[in-house]
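Hi R.,

Here's the chain you asked about this morning:
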Amino acid sequence: MNRIARYGKLVAQDGRGAELAELLLAAAAGLEDRPGCELYLVNRQADAPDTIWVTELWRDKDALDAVLEAIKGTPETAAAMKLVAAAEMIELDLLGGKGPTPRAGGST
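And the predicted structure, written out as tokens:
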């Protein structure tokens, strides 16, 4: 299976970007024990402090789907979503570059 790369853009309600970022950083810490999550970076847009970007890399679709199912309806997810005014998820086809070491027999 191919790795799954995604960019998530979350625009928080006015003045709530820092709070949203903290919740997403807590979510990132919770992914430490999920080997299928290879990368989960939380970024703040430099010129728009209420805009948070998440860069994700997953081993495969099954790993992503398992995490999405596990967080569905949790209090943490609900708390974060209450802060979001707008959201966009961009699905990508990973081609390669500098980053996590490729798996044996697999592509970057």
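Strands lie at 4-12, 37-45, 48-58, 84-92.

Let me know if you need anything else.
M.
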